[in-house]
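Quick question, first post here. What does this chain look like in 3D?
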Amino acid sequence: MRFAQLLQAVGNEPLFETGLLLSGDCDPADVRRQITRWVSRGWITKLRRGLYTLAPPFGHNRPHPFLVANELVRGSYVSLQSALAHHGLVPEHVPVTTSVTTGRPGRCETDVGVFEYRHLHRDLHGGYRREPLGGGQHAFVATPAKALADLVHLVPGADARGYLEGLRIDPRDIRELAADAPRFAGRPKLRRAFRHLTAIADESGA
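> Answer (accepted):
Ran it through. Tokens below.
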């Protein structure tokens, strides 16, 4: 396989898998050797075994970190501070894309970003939706209330009022979060956190 054939096969896809190239009369061993060569030359970027993206200047549709996060660990969804920032609820830039998964926790450092995965019990897995990211890309991202619920559940001390105030969530947004929270606030730590948030909103007069 020649590199021009790869570009034609991949088209404008932000990510591609080896299986996409193993069709027709291509020799699988030759394809894998070529991929290894192209990675070493910096023409394509390996994200995990079998998952790649075209490197600049060949890739014109750069993969969004949330899409990469979904594909690195199938069945995961972006949550916690990453999702809160995506929804415009926290002002800080979040350099690490954090997701939750029912599988093993872990951390993956790639040329396109750093990705962290937190383990969440299967009973608590949910509350996400497919979000548009631009460029025809989509990813599974927690709803605002579920992102906050996951944060409170997984981060020690995140139910404390001081921690919640440090997130600097606009009190007007807290009202919307509180309206959606009962679906996820079945545990004492979560109920305590949402009580604190409601009090913060009340005191602000929002």
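The chain is about 40% helix and 20% strand.
The radius of gyration is 20 Å.
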